Amino acid sequence: MTETVDLRVADLHPAVDDPALNSMNFLNEVAQHYPDAVSLAAGRPYEEFLDVAALHRHLDRFRRHLADDLGQSPAQVHRTLLQYGRTKGIVHHLVARNLAVDEDVTVDPEAIVVTVGCQEAMFLVLRALRADPRDVLLAVAPTYVGLTGAARLLDLPVRPVRGGPAGIDLADLREQVRVARAAGLRPRACYVMPDFANPSGTSIGLTDRRRLLDLAAEEDLLLLEDNPYGLFPAPHAGRLPTLKALDSARRVVYLGSFAKTVLPGARVGYVVADQRVAGADGTVSLLADQLAKIKSMVTVNTSAIAQAVVGGALLEHGCSLVAATVRERAAYGRNLRHLLDGLARRFPAGTSPVRWNVPAGGFFVVLTVPFGVDDALLHRSAREYGVLWTPMAHFYAAGAPVDALRLSVSAVTPDEIDLGLDRLAALVADETARRAATAEVG
Amino acid sequence: MTETVDLRVADLHPAVDDPALNSMNFLNEVAQHYPDAVSLAAGRPYEEFLDVAALHRHLDRFRRHLADDLGQSPAQVHRTLLQYGRTKGIVHHLVARNLAVDEDVTVDPEAIVVTVGCQEAMFLVLRALRADPRDVLLAVAPTYVGLTGAARLLDLPVRPVRGGPAGIDLADLREQVRVARAAGLRPRACYVMPDFANPSGTSIGLTDRRRLLDLAAEEDLLLLEDNPYGLFPAPHAGRLPTLKALDSARRVVYLGSFAKTVLPGARVGYVVADQRVAGADGTVSLLADQLAKIKSMVTVNTSAIAQAVVGGALLEHGCSLVAATVRERAAYGRNLRHLLDGLARRFPAGTSPVRWNVPAGGFFVVLTVPFGVDDALLHRSAREYGVLWTPMAHFYAAGAPVDALRLSVSAVTPDEIDLGLDRLAALVADETARRAATAEVG
């Protein structure tokens, strides 16, 4: 007798069967199945600097801020922290101050929507922009899987734009806009991570940032700038202005995260959406207000308690996350350096066909190997070699394996990097030999 | 010169211009515009029992639970509270225990997804079920606007089922299923709030609950049971078993909220989705796991800090929210009694044409008046009479005004109820006279 079933996957939204939505699940399952493997896969922040005691301190600090700085009465403080709250959030003024202090970006706090992590921010923006079956999104490839998944849930096709070593191929972006429009489609925006992108690690240079903004104006395109890693340049590498800082024409919708700078467990992010939106009746509103309407039907508002923790952390450092993340920046910079040095030792330029890029910061390095890299190889790597990494194929539209893998330095120690790289080098050597043998036999 | 605009509402998803999404905004704006008016409109919980100090206590309690009861190491506790977390949540086992203790419902904790409030739970379920343009949702009318809005965001039409004094008209439900199917549509589920519904205040009797489950089985229909108010019966009124407690055939997807029982500011709710889902490859999963995939692309996971606060509150009372809400139940029961008595004094049965229902619990009473009730009247009520309430038209598909309004007793004191009802009685008297005069002139 077969097991009774109540529903069929085929009767649910097709996204639940999509590679993008199953990718994270798959990678988490592999990690759980091999807990003793060294993980050069996890993109989560380093845990040592997170602090349970800080939760209480930040909550108290934000409570005092409401009373002392904003002049709220005890009843108002009580209501702000404990009741249903403002849809656009209660730390918007601190986010605006943070953007002014750290990014030289001046925004009206009313143009900010505080969200349940950056993921909800992306989701709200894509929901707003996807109005019609002709709408498509452009995204620099390889693409963060959270973007691809959110778009899939909203039946919004994502069309890749070549990334390349410069972070974005502007000629290809222009071409993709042309091709989409020629096909009767509406490219609503281009998604881009200009600083130390996930998964590629690449950054867009200053000149190209300006050119990208010009192109967006010429082509009447919005840019969705996602910036989770911008505060983590490698030691002695500088930080570049964000697209939003260079944006004088409200072309950029800016997606912000506190997961890597304050606390992943808070699930607080935000979107800056200062675009002016004309209603049929001639009224003009901010895009942020349209996003807030959508948010009211997705999550109502972001947890006030979670926001208070982030608010307190911001206040503790004068709203500067550059100041708040000195230790993190040092650790990530050290790890990135250690990984790059370790790769150079294990895969010498003259003799090894293995190649990698040299990111100017962030969490990720892409390693190109002389063979296809698929999920089966990841399983084998975990089981037989004890090292985890991420197949780059997960960041491209479903299809053939890609001959590259992503290494992450965010959640490991230098010793773990050494151990992981030793194991990875063994895998690469064995796999190269195995495939050479197969080729000879073939 | 006209103001520069960047986008047009007409180019965004049509939901942003929909009455359902603008309804809450409108009502909030009226409330903000008349802060001195007595609010018989607000459905938020009573604030006096909320407690900032409890946040710290609950956080600590849940932290100890992770270590002492679940045996987590200090590093694991740290990770559970502060890192990215399990998509389906970290208080699922406590939610399951709560359902066993308070609702006599036995569910596998793996069938629970902890969500950013009940709103996200609804959103995830509707996203999963809306697979095709032929899909429609049935919902008892008048309908909670959060359901209507979520469905609108997902392009899922909502078709009303008559509610009436019994809470649901089962013959009409059967007829609406028939009509939809005859039109080539797929009714995926029927949304129902069997206990003290928002906005109607009505409840479904035990016999009708069983009949509804039978009908769902016969028609192969899921039931979405939303139960935010079930713990608040009027004094001496009993509680009925939930549909989920009576559900022996996994027909019910149960939507739970902690906003009214623990803390609105936490934004923690959940869905019980124990339905078995068959994949094309023959694998069988829980609907909860399909919802988790969707959640991973909407909010990733629910704030661990917010969950910890709710978890601590549950632990403090042995996971019984019946035990935790003794004061709240007394206050809401007293207020409901006070409102009903006050209505009877001000609108005597023999002489007044005003009528109202007598809910067996919850926050809401519907008042029927001898004139149409629209937003303009609400504005006048706020401005000239100093009392707020909710036009029932907001809970029906857009159209003509309805001659009824919703009164809420959740966020007021008995004195405020008296004051509000005095003002409301004055409005009703003036409006009845005014319309009578207009009719005579006409």
From TrEMBL, chains A, B:
Bilayer-spanning residue ranges: none
Superkingdom per UniProt: Bacteria
Entry keyword Transferase: yes
One GO process term, biological-process aspect: alpha-amino acid metabolic process
GO MF entry, a single one: pyridoxal phosphate binding
Required cofactor(s): pyridoxal 5'-phosphate
Keywords associated with the record: Aminotransferase, Pyridoxal phosphate, Transferase
Gene3D superfamilies from the UniProt entry: Aspartate Aminotransferase, domain 1, Type I PLP-dependent aspartate aminotransferase-like (Major domain)
Entry annotated with the keyword Flavoprotein: no
Name of the protein: (S)-3,5-dihydroxyphenylglycine transaminase
Species name: Micromonospora echinofusca
